[in-house]
Design goal:
3-stranded antiparallel sheet, 65% helix, Arc Repressor Mutant, subunit A, 3 strands
């Protein structure tokens, strides 16, 4: 069973611990790139590269206003992941239900 292209990109983006920290920090609201970089102990360039991957995965949106680039979460990438997880959950739930029925018949 192959994954939709968006799911693979989202999972790859979230595989990195630094990117997961960025996503966690953005759950409280938009932040500038410099505000994101400060507690991470990495350069602005490194944060910008992480943000680019998160943006390509549809998880983050960045906007530049004047000299400040701000970032916020984008629900689209999360929706792709949620749908994929729901499908997997549904498949396994049906299998567990069938197993339960089979075990009940064997009693």
């Amino acid at each position: 069973m192959s994954e939709p292209p968006g799911v693979e990109r989202v999972l790859r983006a979230l595989a990195d611990p630094t990117r997961r920290v960025i996503v966690e920090r953005l759950t409280d609201g938009p932040l500038s790139v410099s505000a994101l970089a400060a507690p991470l102990g990495v350069t602005l360039t490194a944060v910008a590269q992480h943000l680019q991957l998160l943006e390509e995965a549809g998880l983050v949106r960045t906007e530049k206003t004047g000299r400040v680039r701000s970032c916020r979460l984008e629900p689209g990438g999360f929706a792709v992941l949620e749908r994929w997880l729901a499908e997997r959950r549904s498949i396994h739930q049906m299998r567990f239900d069938a197993l339960g029925e089979m075990l009940a018949r064997d009693k």
